[in-house]
Each structure stands twice: as C-alpha cells, then as structure tokens.
Specification:
With about 400 residues, this protein is of the alpha/beta class. Helix content is about 45%, strand content about 15%. Bound molecules: 5'-O-[(R)-(carboxyoxy)(hydroxy)phosphoryl]adenosine and zinc ion. The site of zinc ion (ZN) has 5 residues, from helix 4.
Length: about 400
C-alpha cells in the first residue's frame, strides 16, 4: 500500500488548524492559529468572533500547512475536516472550505468527529515515538518498520479513552476491528466539562482566559491540601437517558453496563462560595484590572498578583479535579477490565494530571498513554490521523453533509 497523505482541517472552536499526516502515523506539518488574543477580553470564546477569525485564517493556515509539508493542493490524497461537535458557525467555515477544495481538486472528502480526533492524537504520538526510535534503531542496525507495525498492533484492546477538554469529559471503550475503530461511551459529564471548570474558576479569580494553562502553572506554588472540596455528587437524571434510537445509551445492550459519569459544576460553585466567605472579591478585582493592563502576562506577573490564599485555593481546586478524573477513570478501567488507558484533550496537557495518572495507573498495572503537549489541545493532525482508517475503508462524505454542533461519538 503506497503512503497516503491526508490534509486535515479543524475549526470547531477557537483554533484554526491544518496539518498534513502521512498514512495516519506521521505528522508532516501541523499549523495551529490560536484565537486566544481575540477572546481574552471576554473571558471565553465568543462564537460570532470565532467564525469571523476562522474565515480570516483558514486560507493562509491551509497554505502554510501544505508549504511546510512540501505538498501542493493536488499532491495530497484526501481532505479531512471536523464535522462536530463544536460551534456551528465555526465548524461551517472549515467544512465549506474543505468541500470547496475537495470539489475543485476532485479529491475524497472525509468527515471526522472531533472527539475521535482527540483519541487518535494519542496514536499519532505512539507511532511518532516509534518512528523516532526506529530511526535510531536503523542507525544501530536493529529491527525496523515491520517491528514498528507489529508493536503498533500490540496495543491491547479495548482501550479506555478519557477525552477531557474545554467542551467535553467523556470516557470511551475503543475497539479496533481490522483498520476501523468503534467506540462505546461509558461515561460523560452531567454538567460542566473539566476544562470548562478550569476556565470558569480562572475567570472567577481574575486570571484571564484560557484558565487551564494558568492554573496548571500557579498550582505549583500553592498547597493542594489547603482547601477541602466535597466529592462530586451525581444526583440528577442523565440527559442521555432520553437519547434517540441508535445512539449509544439507547441500545439495549448498554442498559446493564455500569456508567462512570462526572460532574464539575459543584466544585466551581464551591470555589465561588469560598471566595465569598473569605472576602476575596476586592483583591480579585484589583488582580483582574492589573493583569488586563499587561500584554501577555508572565508567570512572575501572575505570582506578583497572587496571594498565598489564592494560590492555595488554585492548587486545591486542581488537585480535587485531577483526583476525581483519575479515580473515576481507574474505576472504569477496573470494571471493564482494560489494560490500556488513553488520556487526551486539552486538559490532558495538565502536569499534575499526567503525574497522577502515571502513578495510579502503573500501581494498577495499566499502561497509560497521552498525546504530546502540542497534540493534546486542538489541532488538525489528529483529524487527519482519525481520517486514515476511513480513507482505507473508502468511507467518504457526501458533498452535502453538514456541521453537527452536538455530534456524538
Ligand atoms: O481540546 P481543547 O483545545 O479544546 C476543546 O476541544 O475543548 O481544550 C481546551 C481546554 C480549555 O478548557 C483549557 O483551559 C484546557 O483545555 N487546558 C488545560 C491545560 N491546557 C489547556 N487545562 C488544565 N491544564 C492545562 N495545562
Ligand atoms: Zn478539542
């Protein structure tokens, strides 16, 4: 089978991204244009602005991805694009452009679920690491490509994948049958996604947007045991129980499966209550104003405007979320008797989360894999990677497919 080069396009939220990936395993180029500066003044993504920024960026970003890969529009074998979930207007920009390219170039078009992309980002890095090790092996005259492919297929299935980002907190059991992948959702958040909680708490504490990376760095300067948060309680009825026929939870075989759901709006409210009862609002307002006047604040700037009480609160908040994510995921791993964990999505960039999963998984004899930092947050290489099995199966999209803001996997 000759190598296949897929151009991936991603525009589901606040990143316009394009990438060229070879045969689903090697990132040739990976360009991400972030809109953080646009949304920062509003403390969150403004959908209208996101669509406008995608329109502005899509053509140059795709051009750059092709140029960096030393490819042309006509030399790629297929075009893959995120169909959903995400912001409808933002998704439409990527989809319309991908359709136009596929039509004009007469290339196959592949529609990809963003969540499946996050799962395949892990695989990309596994394969990339193998490629790098392979290069070294070749220099040392050790086993080569065949060995690599064998090792790729040695991943033990089913894999339990935690997709944890700004919009999602989902657990999937993933199976590989031949080249194609199937997914069963075995857990999801009942309210806020974990990344959303990071972003909302950062906003509440006057730290700006996006909150995850800032909290990650500041938490290292606080005491994670200073504030105790009660464990998340999952009380109300699952929205998914009313799911239409054909979706995961409506399938009869799913009825008896244990579920491992999450909830992160309670901890956000607990932080707010802590702020109120400890009279922290005035200091927060001062911090908000001071940081707004600094272009791209550094860690030192944040620390200069962060008192010990705030740093302890941040560290305790992060610790509680990470422990909860790890405990629920490991409980699911045990219940479904899996040997391999994938942890992916923007929050998988968190340093405490990586340490905790590595420690807890290894003590239970589980293998845990993360994407590299650049592939944990939104990018298009993951979209091109997830498209490869569909390319092999000739699972192409019809020209009239549409964005699906609430798309499920
Ligand atoms: O995957 P992603 O780029 O977009 C979505 O699909 O949502 O994830 C973005 C989310 C944001 O909520 C951001 O705050 C969070 O990932 N994030 C982090 C870190 N880096 C990004 N959360 C915690 N620690 C980080 N280091
Ligand atoms: Zn994402």
């Amino acid at each position: 089978m000759p190598a296949a080069y897929i151009l991936g396009i991603e525009s589901s939220c606040d990143e316009t991204a394009a990438a060229v990936v070879r045969s689903g395993e090697q990132v040739i180029s990976n360009v991400v244009a972030s809109q953080i500066a646009t949304h920062q003044p509003y403390g969150g993504v403004v959908p209208e602005l996101a669509s406008r920024e995608h329109l502005r960026a899509i053509v140059p970003v795709v051009r750059q991805a092709l140029a960096e890969a030393k490819h042309t529009y006509s030399s790629v074998d297929a075009i893959a694009v995120t169909q959903g979930p995400g912001l409808a207007g933002a998704l439409m920009v990527g989809i319309s452009y991908a359709k136009a390219l596929a039509f004009a170039l007469d290339k196959p078009l592949i529609a990809v679920n963003h969540l499946e992309g996050h799962i395949h980002a892990v695989l990309l890095d596994l394969r990339e690491n193998d490629l790098r090790q392979n290069d070294m092996r070749q220099n040392l005259d050790l086993p080569d490509k065949k060995e690599r492919q064998k090792r790729n297929h040695e991943l033990q299935f089913p894999v339990l994948a935690l997709v944890v980002s700004g919009g999602h907190t989902h657990l999937y059991l993933a199976e590989q049958k031949g080249e194609s992948w199937t997914y069963e959702n075995v857990g999801h958040t009942r309210d806020d996604a974990a990344g959303e909680a990071f972003d909302k708490v950062a906003k509440l504490l006057g730290l700006g947007y996006p909150g995850g990376p800032i909290i990650d760095r500041l938490a290292q300067h606080g005491d994670p045991r200073a504030v105790k948060f009660p464990p998340a309680q999952i009380k109300h009825r699952d929205r998914r129980l009313g799911a239409p026929a054909g979706t995961a939870s409506a399938l009869g075989s799913d009825a008896d499966r244990p579920r491992f759901d999450f909830s992160y709006s309670g901890i956000k409210t607990a932080v707010l209550r802590y702020v109120e009862t400890h009279h922290m609002q005035a200091a927060i307002e001062l911090r908000r104003k001071a940081l707004a006047n600094i272009h791209k604040p550094s860690l030192e700037d944040y620390l200069a405007h962060g008192d010990p009480q705030t740093l302890n609160l941040i560290a305790s908040f992060q610790h509680a979320i990470v422990e909860d994510l790890a405990a629920r995921t490991l409980a699911a791993a045990q219940a479904f008797d899996v040997a391999t964990l994938f942890v992916t999505g923007g929050v998988a960039a968190n340093s405490e989360l990586r340490r905790t999963f590595e420690r807890n998984a290894s003590s239970e004899g589980l293998a845990v894999y993360f994407p590299s930092l650049r592939l944990a947050t939104d990018n298009a290489a993951m979209i091109a990677a997830a498209a490869y099995p569909k390319f092999l199966a000739k699972d192409f999209a019809a020209m009239d497919f549409s964005a699906e803001a609430g798309m499920r996997l």
